[in-house]
Amino acid sequence: MKRKDQLQFVIQNLKKHKIRTLMTVIATAMGCAFLIVLASVGFGLQQTVVEDTLEQQAVTEIDIHGKGKPEEGFQPLTMEHVQNIEEIDGVKAVTRRNHLGQVPVFLVDQHEGQTGAVSAHFPSEIASGMELAEGEFPEEPNEVLIGPHFSQALIPTDANEQEVYDEQGMVKEEYQYEGSLLGKTIDMKVTKQIDGEEETTTIPVEVTGILQEPTREWMQDRKVYMTTDLLDEIAAFTGTPKGSPVIGEGMEADDTISEVKVYAQNLQAVEGITEQLDEKNYATYSVVSEMNQINVLFTIAKAGLILIGTIAIVIASIGIYNTMTMAVTERAPDIGIMKAIGANPKTIKRVFLLESSLIGIAGAVIGTVTAYIVSFGVNLGLPAIIEASFGEELPEGLQFSAIPPMLIFIAVGICLIVTILSGVRPAKRATQIDVLKAMRREI
Amino acid sequence: MIQVNGLSHDFVLGKKNQRTTLSVLKDISLQVDKGEIVTVVGKSGSGKSTLLNLISGFIRPTKGDIWIDGNHVSDFSEAAFADLRLNKMGFIFQNFQLLPAMTAFQNVELPLTLSGMSAKNRRQLAGEMMEKVGLKAYQEHYPSELSGGQQQRVSIARAMVLNPPLIMADEPTGSLDSDTEAELLALIRQLNKEIGITFMIITHDEEVARIGDRTIIIKDGSLVEAGASV
Q1: Structure confidence by residue, pLDDT tens digits, A317-344
Q2: How are the residues of chain A apportioned to helix, strand and coil, as percentages rounded to the nearest 5?
Q3: Domain boundaries, chain A
Q4: Closest CA of chain B from A355, distance in Å
Q5: CA-based nearest distance A431→chain B, Å
Q6: What are phi and psi of A154, to 5 degrees?
Q7: For chain A, does the N or the C end have fewer beta carbons within 10 angstroms?
C-alpha cells in the first residue's frame, strides 16, 4: 500500500470522528504550547541577561587579577608579565593602568573637586579601542583625559558644602560647572607627608580629550586619565611608588601594575587566550567565562522547564492512546476484513502509527502557533501588568519569553515522539487482531 | 493448486487448569487441481469451515502440511500469508464482509490499493470488474444500500479484481434467496469456465454442492469422501 493511499485512508478515518479527533488534537496542542511557553521564559530571560551582560562589558576584554595559584595567593603583575602576555596569539592589546596612590584635588575656574586619577599607557588604550567623545589623546606628559562625568565632581570654591548637594548626593544644577572643559588647564593638587607634616604641590594639566559615556546609564566616570610620565612626576614629588602621600610597608620597590586588561582580536580568540593565560597561572576573568556560567545555569533551568512541559505532552498522549485504542476497537471488524483479503500486518501498523502521528503533527503545529501568540502577548502585556500591579518600572528591553527555532525543534520533536509512542501499542494491537473473531464481530 | 497432507486441528477450550482439547479435523489429506471447482460439504460443526480457515491461513494447523500453488504455507509467517492471500487467493464470505464505510467501488478497489497499484490503474480495473458483475450503476452505493445478492456480487468482484488463481468461498449463498443463489452460482461457473479460476466452496447446500467438479464430504472432522472428478 502506497504512502499516499495510507495517508488518504487515515484522513478518511479521522474525518469520520471529527469531534474526537479535534479534541485529541487540541489536547496535544495545549501540551505542546505549554511546553514551548514554559521553556520560552527560560530562553527569554537568558537572552535578556546575556544581552545585558554584553552591553555592560566589552566582549573581547579579559581582566587579569594577578598570577599564581589560588591556594598560594595571587601576585600582582609587572611589565615583564605584560610583555609576555602581548606575545600570545590573538592578543590585540594589553592595557595597563596604575591608580594614583591618593585622591587629588582639581581646581578650574573657581571650581574644585576631588576625584580619582589613573595613569594609562595610551598607545595600548588606543589599540584596545578606547574612544573619545571629543578631543584627542594626550601626547605630552602634562596632558590628561577626563571621564564624561568629571565636571560633576566640581563645585564652586566659595560654596557652602551643605547646600551644594541634593538628597541623592549629586551637585545641584545651580552649582554645577557649566561649559566644556576641553582644552582647559586644570590645577592638580597632590600632597605628601613628611614626619606628620603635609606638603602640597600644584601641577597644571591640560584636558585634551573627554571619554565617551559608559555603556550603562547608571555608570559614572569622573576619573582623570594621565600619562605614565605624570605619575612618575607625582611619585618623584611624594617619594613613594604610585604617588602615595605616605610610604607603606613593602612599597619601596613597587613596580607592579594595578590593572591589566587583555583585548582579543575577536570574540573567537577570547577562549583560546583565556586558556593559555589559565595554563600560565594567570587569574583571568572575561565576559566569555561569565557567559559560560550564565549559559550553564540557564541550560539547567531550561532543561527543567522542558521536562515539566513534557509532562503536559505525556498527559495529552494519554488522550491519543485512548483515541487510538478506541479507533482500533471500533475498526476491528474492518481490520479483520482487510487482513483476510491480504493486508500485511506491517501496513496495518503503519496506518495506525500514521494516524497517531497526524494527530501529533496537527497538535504540534497548532501548539507552536498558539505558543508564539501567547509569547507575543506575554512580552507585550506582562510588563504593563507588573508595572500597574506592583508599581515597579521594569528595565527596558526585558524579554520574558523568547522562542528560538531550537525550542520549536525540541518541542515538536518531543511532541512527535510522545504521540507516536502512544500510538505504538494500539497499532500493535491492530496487527494482532484475530481475523475470524473480527469478522464474526466478536471484538 | 492445493495439497493437504495429514492435516489435523484441535481447539483448546475452557479456562486454565480446566482445559479440554476438541479435535475438529483429523488427519485430512486432499488435493485440489488447477481450474477445478471443489465443494466441501458436511453438517454444521463437521469442520469444513475450519478446513477453509486453515488453508487460508486464518488459523494454524495442529499437525499436517498445506501446499498452495507449490508453496509450503504451513510454516509461513503472518506477513507471508498476507501476501499470499493478496496475490493468489480471493475470498467470498457468507456475510459478504464488505467495509461498510466504503462504497461498492472502494471495496472492490481495496485489494488493488493494498497491492500498491497506481490510482489510475486501480480505477480502470475496479471499474471493469464492477461492470463484469453487473453493478456498474451501483458503484457509488454503500453496502447498506445494496441487496444481499448485490453485496455478494461486490464481494465476488473484490475477490476477483487481482485476478487470483484460487478463490475460497465459505457458504457463499448462505444469506441469499433461491433466485439470487442461482444467479451467483451461474456467475461462479462462468468465471471458472472463462478465466479458469480454481474454486473451493464450503457449503451445506446440496444445490451449491452440485456445481462442483468434485465434492468432498467431511463428517466429524474426518474425510469421508474425496469425491471423483465429474
Answers
A1: 888 888 889 888 888 999 999 999 999 9
A2: 55, 20, 30
A3: 3-56+293-439, 63-265
A4: 17
A5: 10
A6: -95, 140
A7: C
